[in-house]
Structure formats: C-alpha cells, structure tokens
C-alpha cells in the first residue's frame, strides 16, 4: 500500500446511510475516516464514536468546518437533496472531491451547477449508487454484452419498491417537498433508471413517458410511479418505483438470444455471495412441456461489500488526481443522464403522462 | 372411475399444439381421443397414428364430419384465430362442448357470437390457457390472497417473449393478418394479460394504455408491444409481449407485504416439479447490507402436467353437464375479460398510445 495515497474523508451530516458508508471506509485500506460535521456538535461526536472513527478524527459542529479543514481530501454528502447544490458547490470550491448521494439534485440544472464547480476546481464527483461497483454487476455486464449468448438488447424492466410505514410516509425527508422533492422517483426510481441506463450502455432513451397511475402525497411528492422508455433503435424499457409496495428490486434485461434476471440488484440479499440468473438460447422441448436449456444460477463472491468497492474506486480516482491525473468524467456523466431521465418522468407526470423527448 | 363419464374428444385440425393436447387426453382417465378432422384426410390419418389415438378412433377429412359425429362430446379447436368464430359457433350448434385455443377471437365481438351460441346450446366453453390449471397456480393464489403475508395487491408485471426465427417471422400464422391478426398481442400478450387479471382476481382495469415502441410488421400485425393497466383502487400493471426477444415468461406480483416471482409461469421449466419464489415482510438488516428475510423458493409437485390438468377439469365440467348441471360460466367470463383487454391495447396502439377506458 506504500505507493498508494490515503484518502481522508469528511462526512457532512449524520444521516442513517452515513453509518453504512463509514463502515465501508474502514474496510478500504486507501481511505480513512478523517472528519464528520453536523449542525449539532453532540450528534457529530456521538456519530464518530458509534462508527469507529479513529481517536484523532475531527468532529465539527458545522458542515463549513469540514470544508475548511485543509486535510480533508474528499467529502461524502448524504444530505437531503435540496441541500446538494449548496454544499456540493461549496465543497468543490474548497477543492474537496465529492461522493454525492442520489438523487444528485432536485433537477439536472442543479447538478449542472455542481458539475461546473467540480470542473472548474478539478475535483472528482461520483454519486452514491453502490450496486454498480459490485463485481456481480461486472459479471452481468459481461453476459449482456455478449453478442453470441445475449444478442442485441431489446428490453429492460426494473422495479424498486419498499413499503414505508406510517411514520415514514408522514415524516421521512423523502416525502417532504422542501427536502427530497422527487420522492419515490428520486429515491427508488433513481436506481431503476440507473439499472436501465446501465443495461443500455448509458445511451439515453429518445422518449420517456410516465405511466398512468402515479400516486402523489398531499404536498405533491411522488410516492409511486412508473415509466416507459424507448430508444431510436427499438429498445424499450419500463420501471416501477414505489414507497407503497413490499420490498422488491428487480432487473430483467432481455436480448435477442438471452435473458438476465435478478431480484436484489440494488442491495444483494447477502453481502459476500451474490447471485444472478441467466438464460441463453432457451427454447422448448419437443412437446412444449418444458425448457431447454433452463436458466442457470451464477454466483459471484466478493471480498468487499459493494459500498466498500465504491469507496475503493472513488479513492483510487482521487489518488490518481493527487498524482496529476484528471478527474474521471464517466461518473458525473452517468449521474447526469440518470437525473435527466428522472426530470423527464416528472415532467411527463405533470403533463398528464404525455411523452417527453430527450 | 365407474361413476364418471368418459368424455370423447374430437380435434379440429392438426396444429402443432394439438400434439401436446392429444398427449394430455391420453393422461386423463375421464377423457379419450375419439376423432380428428383435417381438410386433408391423409394429414388426419398421420396425426392420429403419430399421437396414440386408439385403433377405433374416427379420422375425418373435414372439420364438419367431426361436428356431425353424434358420439363426439367435445371439440378442441386449435385453428387459426380468424376461424374460431365460424367453427366454434358451428360446434356449439352441434351441441359440442368446446376447448378453444387462445386468443379466443380476433376481437370480443367475435367471442360474444361464440358465447351466444354456447349459451343457447347449453355447452361448456373454456379457453386453452393451460398454466391456470397447474397446482402451482393455486399455491401462488393462496399466497397472494393472504392478507397477512402478501397484503393488498399493488402491482403486477408480466413478460412473455420468444424470438421467432426468420421463417416464423415470415410464414407463421401468428404474423398473418388474415389468420392471427393480433400477432404477438394475441399470442404472447394473451398470457401476460391473463396473468395480470389472474393476480387481480379477474377485476378488469379501468384504463389500458399501450406503451410507446410497439413494433408491427408490414401487414400491420403486432410483433412486439407493451401495455400499462390501472385500476380504480390504485393497482397498476404492465406487460411486455414480443416475438423478437429471447424466451422469457415472468410474472411479478407485489403486495403491501409480500412479493411473488416466477420466470416460467406459462410453461414450467419442468413438467413435474415447478417452483416459485415468495417474499413476505422483507426488510434490510441493520446496516442495509442484506435482506431479512430473504425470499424463499416454493416447490410444487404435480402428478399430471398442466395441460392434462386442464383436460381433466374441462372433462369434469362436461361430465357434470351430462348429469344435468349447467355450464360453468367462470371460464368464458375470464376468456372474455382477457380478450377485452387485448382489444383495448390494440385500440390504444392505433390511437397513438392514448389511454382506453374499459
């Protein structure tokens, strides 16, 4: 590890998800928990001691102090979406590399302001979508990129729902218009959209059409919605995201010659052993009473959970920048595309489920 | 078996699917292969001898002769859809009970003519959707009807696709406007729609909206399409059907407390041992790095394959009618609802993917 740079992370706020992220940092030898800041110093202290921060870690009673600390290399920003623009822009101006939770903004214009700040300050930005860093995702990509086994991608279908309880549906920041105004679309729909774009090699669809039946709360925040997407080459996709249905996280990608299935694409059922199912060139037996071949289950083991894989990759990029490389544009590019699709779904819902051209 | 009536089947035509159906009849003690008719006597003879018809079975060179045979109790009609109305109406007029392949007509008006003939002649009609007769289907229904384990149904998503080869896409009756004018919608989409209605306790949706991206051949026959459905109570559904994508047959039903998954709902991977996956009250572990509980795999064994289960149930109903009962209206009712939804999808595609109220 001697040749690698140790990346010192500062965390803005004590969100629930920051606990998982903090643990991930402790698993990555090239990253360290260096600082945490909260509007409440007491909360920051409690967070640091509950999450295995080293004894010499800095604990601040504000986000500003984290950004002012010259030894912080990178910040993790799990704040409510409505605060992303302000704090990510400030972080970039302070030359901090940024791991930004999703959705990256309330709309793509906000993210563009963040991107501009990152670009002009030469800092790396990556969003907090963990599943794309799982080695299973690479194995699935290998399958759906295989012209012989999978053929040409024809359709992708994703679902992410979980049933928020009464407290969630009343009080969670994700149902508050002034905090996470995109609701289920920004939270669960973010992953659905990313899954679709991932399968489509991040090619943007031509048209996005929200599906009739979206459910909004009294404040106008989306609690459940779906969308249909289509591409110029004939590919189509659908997704369904909801705070009102049982936990489900499916991706199904269908090519001309193969099908990929998995039911835990965002959070694997288990951290170390992940599965997916693939079928290739399946047909029926002679009397159409069974399949030949039947789908096969693939197993992918991983030493590090996906959130630590994300931290490792982000830290690697920051380390490269410290050695003179430029920021990796792939990550903000796919963040921006994901946000663009979410924006289009929102517009389509507002327009009575009419198609929106991208 | 002494108290049960042996139902004598006549088959109209020698379609591929009739081979599977003939084998099913040989597996059911209450049914017998009694006659087959084809426009070609030679074809009918070859079919009878290749499909284990008894030596005394009747072999006819026309469909009419099957209908005229007074000893035929019931007919199986696997003819192209455009011929359903003519031959099903004639069969009913000859007091033959009818097992009719799907789609039941080119539109619901055709099926209504068939229904009228069946009602006025007191004959049973059932469509050839086999999977609903599998004992697995009953086990799945038990789960999604369970208010405690599954809760209230919120969404259903079905897919049925298979990749027709060049010959299929050029010559199969399912791509010919004068034979099976509904194309992939009538063939694959029939099962998708039935799966959705089955999950929704056969309650018709309020609105049906075809998804942008439908693919039609030069003759205007649908090769691939999708649809969104919504109900007054907020339930939603989507389906995707296609002749252009790899073999996939998924149903996902999501309730407030549970999720049902299976990937072979129409033709089980294997005839005797069928699976499905259910999850109930799943959440995440403390750090959101895994699920608790994870979905569980259910296994349903069956002595008879689903097509024979269908023949057995149909024969039971015919036997009851012979003993004085009235025809069972459940089966034509669900056939008609399925056709109604298909008709609405077709109208929506023609209207530029606008919603169609049912």
Automatic annotation (TrEMBL), chains A, B:
<feature type="domain" description="Gfo/Idh/MocA-like oxidoreductase N-terminal">
    <location>
        <begin position="7"/>
        <end position="126"/>
    </location>
</feature>
<feature type="domain" description="GFO/IDH/MocA-like oxidoreductase">
    <location>
        <begin position="141"/>
        <end position="260"/>
    </location>
</feature>
<comment type="similarity">
    <text>Belongs to the Gfo/Idh/MocA family.</text>
</comment>
<dbReference type="InterPro" id="IPR036291">
    <property type="entry name" value="NAD(P)-bd_dom_sf"/>
</dbReference>
<dbReference type="Pfam" id="PF22725">
    <property type="entry name" value="GFO_IDH_MocA_C3"/>
</dbReference>
<protein>
    <recommendedName>
        <fullName>Gfo/Idh/MocA-like oxidoreductase N-terminal domain-containing protein</fullName>
    </recommendedName>
</protein>
<dbReference type="InterPro" id="IPR055170">
    <property type="entry name" value="GFO_IDH_MocA-like_dom"/>
</dbReference>
<dbReference type="GO" id="GO:0000166">
    <property type="term" value="F:nucleotide binding"/>
</dbReference>
<dbReference type="InterPro" id="IPR000683">
    <property type="entry name" value="Gfo/Idh/MocA-like_OxRdtase_N"/>
</dbReference>
<dbReference type="Pfam" id="PF01408">
    <property type="entry name" value="GFO_IDH_MocA"/>
</dbReference>
